Amino acid sequence: MDELKSSVRLVAGIFLSISLISSVLACAVWEFPSHELSKNVVYLVGVGGGLLLNIVIFICLFRGMANQNPSYFLPYIVCSFLNLTICLTLSVVFCLSSIRSFYSGIAPMDAVAFFVVLLCSIFWYWSLKIVKIYREYLTKISGKHTLFNNPEFV
Fold this sequence. Notes:
The protein is mostly helical. It has helices at residues 2-29, 37-67, 74-104, 109-142. Helix 3 (74-104) packs antiparallel against helix 4 (109-142). The two termini are 35 Å apart.
């Protein structure tokens, strides 16, 4: 199970890296001079809040591994499931858009976006599967999976 634990660490590291990179890119893409100060502040608070939430999820992953507590993995499972759903939806949209641009003779820039989102979908599926397997393993070794079949209370 050390291999599975190292896979969860890898997932956590990639998750934190993606969070940091996306926050930096979100700030780089935003044109601060063309917006009012209040909109800039709201945008930065939103980006910072999202980054803070992702850091908390990252910490939960590591605390779950350190304490061998399966309940700490739930925030990541919810987050990765939502990201997987969004990426799969975008994959369908970009795939259909790529097909349309292919038949209309337009440069297929949507195909690049389709492959990027498809790679993200593959990562979210893989990471969700790894974390769920490790969570089930921790549930089994902690004894939380046993059925409650005491005849006194049934």
